[in-house]
Amino acid sequence: MTCSDEAPMTSGYARYLAAKTTVDDRALNRHVLTEFRRLMPAGAVQVLEVGAGLGTMAARLIDWGAVGAGQYTLLDADRQLLDCARRWLHDWAATRGLRSDLLPDGLQVGDLRVRLVHAELGSYLAAAHGARADVLIANAVLDLVDVPAVLPGLLRLLVPGGGYWFTINYDGESTFVPAHPLDDQVMQAYHRDMDERSRHGRPAGESRTGRRLFHQLRAAGAPALAAGSSDWVVHPAPDGNYPADEAYFLRSILNTIRDALRNRHDRVAPADVAGWLAVRGRQLAAGELVYVAHQLDFAGRSPG
Ligand SMILES: C[S@@+](CC[C@H](N)C(=O)[O-])C[C@H]1O[C@@H](n2cnc3c(N)ncnc32)[C@H](O)[C@@H]1O
Mind listing the domains of the chain with CATH numbers? Predict the structure, then answer.
């Protein structure tokens, strides 16, 4: 995917997020989605999505008939990715036959105004904000931030009793099939990296975000009204091909593990990591690799 010639790194990440779309489509928990839709006001709605990336969730919710009119704000710390989002959503709307017009700070898609906000979440929460959202969404994001630090502020971005939908929260279990003798060692090191990493000068998530959200939401006065698993399950079709762009998605997951372990030689020897990645790469190319990541979805209301 080319978003702009100046942003080749970002456009690789944008392709990963686009490739993730079909994986998320299958994974999102429908019981939790039903509860979230029940929490949404009818008619024009003010939606805020944090860590929105390419805007694929906005497209999905339009496709699923959950959002059609009002304002949908995409907030992300990555400006180049937001530039990609503007173009990606415009192209996506064209494929759906939806009228769409590019605007200086976003775009109009049918009756929905999509606004792009470039901000790091912690800094955004620290600043004062006017209008609050009816609905707050975070998809594949809360496992990248310091939840206890940001959750109370996040919920204050909602009108009292407003609905939240926090989805695809990683929960400490990844499985690759066929099994490999180094799987446990590699995954333990990968999870430790998640638990210790920092981004934007702040702690950046943890490997068991999903299960911890139950009590964190309760402590913030917003216990989950619905929760359920949203595991990623990626496998080849009977002909050995992966659906859509999911081979690229899997390659990106392997690259993420490679990058996380690059400077963690105390945990897994570089030769062992390289050997494990080589085997997984060959299995991917041969259409033999299966990947399952355990995740949890939550829906509920902000404190009234
Ligand atoms: C795994 S991606 C998910 C993107 C999108 N929600 C999706 O599911 O396709 C995580 C996104 O969160 C953004 N992000 C991570 N930490 C952030 C922070 N502290 N503030 C704002 N955005 C952040 C990243 O730039 C990235 O776009």
Answer: 8-172+202-233+295-301 (3.40.50.150)
Take atom 13 of ligand 1 and give the residue whose Cα is closest. 51
Q: Is 181 buried (19+), middle (13-18) or exposed (0-12) by CB count in 10 A?
A: exposed
Cβ of residue 139 lying under 6 Å from some atom of ligand 1: yes
Task: Choose which residue among 24, 72, 76 to substitute to test ligand 1 binding: the one with the highest number of ligand atoms within 8 A of its C-beta.
Answer: 76
Q: Which atom of ligand 1 is nearest to the CA of 24?
A: 8
CA of 76 to the centre of ligand 1 (A): 6
Judged on CB neighbours under 10 Å (0-12, 13-18, 19+), 66 is middle
What pTM does this model have? 0.96
Dump pLDDT digits (tens) for 60-95. Answer: 999 999 999 999 999 999 999 999 999 999 999 999
Place of tokens 């049918």: 110
pLDDT in tens, 241-274: 999 999 999 999 999 999 999 977 778 999 999 9
DSSP-assigned states of every residue in 121-149: HHHHHHS---SPEEEEEEES-GGGS-HHH
